[in-house]
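In the previous chapter we treated chains in isolation. Here, by contrast, the input contains three separate entities that must be folded as one system, with a combined length of 984 residues.
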Amino acid sequence: MSGSTPMDALLPLTVVVPLLGAAGVSALNPLFGNRRRLLDAVAILTAATVAGMLIIIMVGTAGGQQVYWFAGFTPSHGVALGIDFAVDQLNAGLAVLAALLVTAAMVFSWRYFERVSTYYHALMLAFLAGMVGFCLTGDVFNLFVWFELMGVAAYALTAYRIGERGPIQGALNFAITNSVGAYLTLSGIALIYGRTGALNMAQIGQAIAGHRPDGLVVVAFALILLGLLTKASIVPFHFWLADAHAVAPTPVCVLFSGVMVELGLYGVARVYWSMFGVGLGHRTSITAALSAFGILTAIVGALFCFRQRHLKRLLAFSTINHAGLFLIGVALLTPLGLTGAAVYVVGHALVKAALFLCVGIVLHRLGSINETLLHGQGKQLRITGVVFALAALGLADLPPFALYLGAGWIGQSGDTRGMPWITVVIITTSILVGAAVSRVAGGVFYGIGDPPSEDPRMGEEASEETSETDEAKSRVPLSMIVPPAVLVALAVVVGLLPHLGPTVQAGAIRLQDQGAYNATVLAGTHTAHPRAIMAVEDAGVTVTDTVTGAGTAAGSLVLALVSLYWRRLPLLRRGFEPGTGLVGPIRRFQSGVVNDYVTWMVIGLACFGGALALAIR
Amino acid sequence: MKPRQRRWVFLAAAGGFLAFYLWGLIGLPGFGHYPGPYGDIVNAIAVAQTHATGVVSAVNFEYRGFDTLGEEFILFIAATGVATVLRHLRDEHDIRVVDEARDRQVPATSDAIRMVTLAFTGPTLVVGWYLASHAQTSPSGGFQGGVVLATAFTLIYLAGQFIAFKRLSPIHFIDSVEAVAAGSFAVVGVAALGLGAAYLANVLPLGSSPGAVNSSGTIALISFFVGVEVSAAFVLIIGELLEQTLVIREGGR
Amino acid sequence: MSVFPFVVVAWILTVGLYGIITSRHLVHQIVCLIVVQSSTYVLLLGVGYKTGAVAPYFYDIPGNTPAVDPVVQALALTDVVVEAAVTALLVAFAVQAHKRFGTLDPEELRQLQG
């Protein structure tokens, strides 16, 4: 397949259209200078077009994997000369999610920014191009190139508000940590190229499949994973995320939490399943190592989230928690685990984006993101309050928001693989995170309970935030409230889709079948029924899932009420507010100094490498 | 972490990391024993297939042209990012570059420097142009040529003619040039799509003999666009950074 | 001594990381990041080298002369451009940081904490 039908031409256009959009917006800068609405409209239209193209492609992958070779260089005798896009349901779906969130963020930006230059739109469109290219590619160096494009656009977007001190520090921390990760990934790519002489993922997978894994394969795997794990904000590579989220403009945070982190995890899955899976073997050890990191991330994220008073940092730590849970789903290596992670990612992206956009509305109308100061102030924002409250419940795994399915399936797969503690981790961390967000919903929008205790450092940060947005108007503009409402509604729709589990699981099985992937990419043969490596479990919606989800949501509400009313409860009044003991550790670890962050990255790499070296010898 | 603590913690972790990395590196085939097959196959067929004798350029702009497209846009976005971060906010009055040496005379650029830099500007332009347009024949290419072209502009600044430098490179014009060049690369690929081939396929006539300037079809064309884009990007970046530190006094010095 | 270039690779990477971690000046930190990336250049080009082979430019030599791997050279070129781009952006960040914080010491940038 190399461009013979119009359908095939769509695949390269999904990346080229946003790139041309970014270049066009910059080139026509004099034209756009004073016509901001035209600029916004062009950007929204470009993003929406890309989303449309990707939806068509995703529907087309139902019949099997699609492969597109750039410049017409199809492989000969199993050697790939060019770069390919290898699209199946899961990565097409992830790309659709990315395009949808960019469209929503651009619609939200319509009214959100008081003044915005063409730079913002060019950066956002290039960010979209990088994300789509990252999702769809089948070549490991091409993966690195789109990874870097995403990164550079993200660093620039984080530093967008140059009038203040915070954004530049956040951008520096973000840039230095992620660049170190990217260069380690490149080292891993060079290593595996040295062994196999190939850059195509399928070809590499085939080349290392037949041999015992030696030091080089293990080290290459660990190094390539490192950049992806950094992007996915897995502990201890996660320190940059809270800083970047605290200072990036709200629509940009939507993209960071909603898709960018998840793309790192997709990268982990893709690199493992299409390149190293068969060659490394030792599946139990790999599950153990990766899920250990996932569990640690989930716990750290949840605990740190609970104690935050800065709304955007609170949501950032909840993203870290969910990133850990997604990693657990991927690490289980079962089809159901990957299915659970995929559905969880979609539900989380929709709900988290809605939460961030509502925080943006709060910032726009009330001029603060300090939970303590905002207590009870949000009562006038009635619709926003409802959307935020619904999204908070969705984040706490309440049925029918799609998240409960993901949580349930990951837990179920964990039980099957003999790791019953995974369900415990999922439930407890979801309760903590759901309680934090529900506490915000109840306190800020409904004035329930007492204001949470003040965070002394918050004063400086909160006052600087307000420069990014327009002066408060009398009503929340439609273009700002419609995107979050639509996103929350979509989360419910996804959760109610019939046959969601089996459909996604079919896609997961296809992604996990390295043999079928190799055959389709290198030889063009289509496999109608990919073989599952691990046991296929039932991906239906069970009563257990529903009850667990409802229970988690209920637990979150209880904990939220306790945090809001703790001063009035007889048992706790003399004791401590829930979460007090965490302030010290949070301050010490999230020091804001990038030297510390990179040290933790090296420690993490040494531990990860050591674990793999001991397990795979 | 305190700095001293951090140093020791890092050294311990780095020891482990170094051992791990070396364990992987010794698995490589020894230095000088490249096993192939990607490089060997490309070396064997590139000249015949693309009529370009510079195989590295053939790989960059043809076999892996899509990577180069992404890389070019990374540079474009970085230049945009520099412009974003260093832009002038409308209500920024007090953050302005202050003339901190008001009583000092600007030392005139010595004649030696001025003569040498201005004399080199022309040849640098020619060399840059040569490099950007001969990607398919000899070790050169759009990126290398573009950087040399940007250097020519910088030589003008070094000669003490910052005003001339600014006048020759107005920010918006350079911005547009850069964006148009970057977009043109992408459009070359789309044109291939329009002709029914795959994206970025080489659809232009390949020329009669390998190694001639007009051979290799789209490789030469893409290399040209890349040269323009890279030079514009670097002029933009250097101009933005210089603007942060230089003060223009009365009298244009 | 066919593993020596690769030992150098590991050493450059570690030294660069040490520089980043102990750095007290942002520009120094950015240059240490460049050093970290330089280790990838050495690795890429070292992987593709063939003893006794020529550069892959067949302008004036017969087409079947053994030549080194052109693909890693193209990758290294891409790598250099990416590094230049990231460095330019980081340097602009450093300029802005100096404007806002008055210092270039990473330890002193304490606006975001906790």
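The interface with chain A takes residues 9, 13, 17, 20-23, 26, 29, 33, 36-37, 39-40, 43-44, 47, 71-72, 75, 78-79, 82, 85-86, 89-90, 93-94, 96-97, 100-101, 106-107, 109-114 of chain C (CB under 8 Å). The longest helix of chain C spans residues 70-101. Compare these points with the single-chain example from earlier in the chapter.
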